């Protein structure tokens, strides 16, 4: 698959950033992102998606917030409209990929063993197991974990972070790194709000806004089919935007990553 | 706990730079880490010896310079300090802000032993 584009291509100018070496001890100024290798691979993955006009979406949440259930409902509703494929990340089982395949859509399972997040190399390996020429929207269901996944760029265009109403409405304040990374936040399992007396959606939204996030907060129940239309509309508009970018020879990273690159005085030294 | 994965990436980078500079070993590694980077400095420090064992960085001292969380306000234009879960403008309280510091995860510099 990668014969045309060349895997593991890294910028050829890295050595220019380093000072010449004297005998003895020398100080070298680097100012390089610690995850630069991962980010290079992520950029390569992104070009696989862009050359084929694919929109890639990374789903993140705590374990059991309803990522797979959201995908199942989405596939049922949209599989005649778009060609969908899924990469599943899980510590141990193939269960989630089996659930997706049962809906008639290709799915590849990455079993990470002990790793608590996906990285760009794992996703790249998974791409070789899918026929990307037959895909409009590729979902990556990340490992259920509110801590690590947000730190690793996979090459996706958009991040979706789920918060289920059984988890507590202050989660964005407790996990700011994860919720800041979201391009849309999904408040899931809202059918359960009726039996929970302590989850206030407005309080969850306030915690999110205090992270300086202006992204949409979609309230839905994948199980009971509530609030799904806004989610499908978001997906449709993102696919339209991705196709326009591809025609214009452009790409996009999740909002937070581009933002950081632009604003940090030293981030342009990569 | 992804600090081990981050340390492994760090050691890979440090090893490449040491080789490019014909260094025998690495004396000091300085990182810039912000509170919104997603890595815990204390966990990095405890994971580092595991990742560095048997490499040119095995004896290196790891220095972590934490970076303050600061935001730029799009409403009033002020640059102010913030906390990780309250990224509001310190002047006017607005939430239309952009982070200007605090999510760094950078290898800042190295001291190499080259003789
Ligand atoms: N009441 C209700 N239950 C839901 C809803 N969505 C998911 N669930 C239930 O929540 C549980 C976990 O859902 P999953 O979709 O497997 O969650 P997940 O995020 O994929 O879980 P991991 O992959 O293990 O992280 C299951 O028992 C689902 O049936 C919903 O909208 N309403
Ligand atoms: Zn490739
Ligand atoms: Zn799942
Ligand atoms: Zn992790
Ligand atoms: Zn202000």
UniProtKB/TrEMBL annotation, chain A:
<keyword id="KW-0533">Nickel</keyword>
<keyword id="KW-0479">Metal-binding</keyword>
<dbReference type="InterPro" id="IPR004392">
    <property type="entry name" value="Hyd_mat_HypB"/>
</dbReference>
<dbReference type="GO" id="GO:0003924">
    <property type="term" value="F:GTPase activity"/>
</dbReference>
<keyword id="KW-0342">GTP-binding</keyword>
<dbReference type="GO" id="GO:0051604">
    <property type="term" value="P:protein maturation"/>
</dbReference>
<dbReference type="InterPro" id="IPR003495">
    <property type="entry name" value="CobW/HypB/UreG_nucleotide-bd"/>
</dbReference>
<keyword id="KW-0862">Zinc</keyword>
<comment type="similarity">
    <text>Belongs to the SIMIBI class G3E GTPase family. HypB/HupM subfamily.</text>
</comment>
<dbReference type="GO" id="GO:0016151">
    <property type="term" value="F:nickel cation binding"/>
</dbReference>
<dbReference type="Pfam" id="PF02492">
    <property type="entry name" value="cobW"/>
</dbReference>
<feature type="domain" description="CobW/HypB/UreG nucleotide-binding">
    <location>
        <begin position="57"/>
        <end position="198"/>
    </location>
</feature>
<dbReference type="GO" id="GO:0008270">
    <property type="term" value="F:zinc ion binding"/>
</dbReference>
<dbReference type="GO" id="GO:0005525">
    <property type="term" value="F:GTP binding"/>
</dbReference>
<keyword id="KW-0547">Nucleotide-binding</keyword>
<protein>
    <recommendedName>
        <fullName>Hydrogenase maturation factor HypB</fullName>
    </recommendedName>
</protein>
<dbReference type="InterPro" id="IPR027417">
    <property type="entry name" value="P-loop_NTPase"/>
</dbReference>
<keyword id="KW-0378">Hydrolase</keyword>
UniProtKB/TrEMBL annotation, chain B:
<dbReference type="GO" id="GO:0016151">
    <property type="term" value="F:nickel cation binding"/>
</dbReference>
<feature type="binding site">
    <location>
        <position position="73"/>
    </location>
    <ligand>
        <name>Zn(2+)</name>
    </ligand>
</feature>
<dbReference type="InterPro" id="IPR000688">
    <property type="entry name" value="HypA/HybF"/>
</dbReference>
<feature type="binding site">
    <location>
        <position position="89"/>
    </location>
    <ligand>
        <name>Zn(2+)</name>
    </ligand>
</feature>
<feature type="binding site">
    <location>
        <position position="2"/>
    </location>
    <ligand>
        <name>Ni(2+)</name>
    </ligand>
</feature>
<dbReference type="GO" id="GO:0008270">
    <property type="term" value="F:zinc ion binding"/>
</dbReference>
<comment type="similarity">
    <text>Belongs to the HypA/HybF family.</text>
</comment>
<comment type="function">
    <text>Involved in the maturation of [NiFe] hydrogenases. Required for nickel insertion into the metal center of the hydrogenase.</text>
</comment>
<dbReference type="InterPro" id="IPR020538">
    <property type="entry name" value="Hydgase_Ni_incorp_HypA/HybF_CS"/>
</dbReference>
<protein>
    <recommendedName>
        <fullName>Hydrogenase maturation factor HypA</fullName>
    </recommendedName>
</protein>
<feature type="binding site">
    <location>
        <position position="92"/>
    </location>
    <ligand>
        <name>Zn(2+)</name>
    </ligand>
</feature>
<dbReference type="Pfam" id="PF01155">
    <property type="entry name" value="HypA"/>
</dbReference>
<keyword id="KW-0862">Zinc</keyword>
<keyword id="KW-0533">Nickel</keyword>
<dbReference type="GO" id="GO:0051604">
    <property type="term" value="P:protein maturation"/>
</dbReference>
<keyword id="KW-0479">Metal-binding</keyword>
<feature type="binding site">
    <location>
        <position position="76"/>
    </location>
    <ligand>
        <name>Zn(2+)</name>
    </ligand>
</feature>
């Amino acid at each position: 698959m990668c014969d045309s584009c060349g895997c593991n291509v890294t910028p050829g100018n890295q050595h220019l950033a380093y000072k010449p070496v004297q005998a003895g001890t020398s100080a070298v100024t680097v100012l390089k992102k610690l995850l630069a290798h991962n980010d290079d691979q992520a950029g390569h993955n992104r070009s696989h998606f862009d050359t084929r006009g694919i929109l890639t979406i990374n789903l993140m949440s705590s374990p059991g917030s309803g990522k797979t259930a959201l995908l199942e409902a989405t596939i049922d509703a949209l599989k005649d409209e778009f060609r969908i494929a899924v990469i599943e990340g899980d510590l141990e089982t193939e269960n989630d990929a089996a659930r997706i395949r049962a809906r008639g859509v290709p799915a590849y399972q990455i079993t990470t063993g002990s790793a608590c997040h996906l990285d760009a190399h794992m996703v790249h390996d998974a791409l070789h197991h899918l026929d990307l020429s037959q895909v409009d929207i590729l979902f990556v269901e990340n490992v259920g974990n509110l801590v690590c996944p947000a730190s690793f760029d996979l090459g996706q265009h958009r991040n979706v972070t789920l918060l289920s109403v059984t988890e507590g409405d202050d989660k964005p304040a407790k996990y700011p790194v994860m919720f800041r990374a979201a391009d849309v936040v999904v408040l899931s399992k809202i059918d359960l709000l009726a039996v929970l007396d302590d989850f206030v959606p407005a309080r969850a939204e306030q915690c999110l806004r205090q992270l300086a996030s202006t992204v949409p907060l979609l309230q839905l129940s994948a199980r009971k089919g509530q609030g799904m239309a806004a989610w499908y509309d978001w997906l449709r508009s993102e696919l339209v935007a991705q196709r326009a970018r591809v025609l214009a020879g452009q790409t996009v990273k999740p909002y937070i990553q581009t933002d950081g690159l632009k604003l940090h005085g030293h981030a342009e030294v990569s | 706990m992804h600090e081990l994965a981050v340390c492994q990436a760090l050691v890979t980078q440090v090893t490449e730079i040491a080789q490019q500079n014909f260094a025998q070993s690495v004396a000091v590694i300085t990182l810039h880490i912000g509170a919104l980077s997603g890595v815990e400095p204390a966990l990095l420090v405890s994971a580092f010896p595991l990742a560095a064992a048997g490499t040119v960085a095995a004896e290196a001292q790891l220095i972590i310079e934490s970076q303050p969380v600061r935001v730029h306000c799009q409403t009033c234009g002020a640059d102010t300090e913030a906390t990780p879960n309250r990224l509001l403008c310190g002047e006017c309280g607005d939430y239309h802000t952009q982070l200007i510091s605090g999510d760094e995860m950078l290898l800042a510099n190295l001291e190499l032993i080259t003789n």
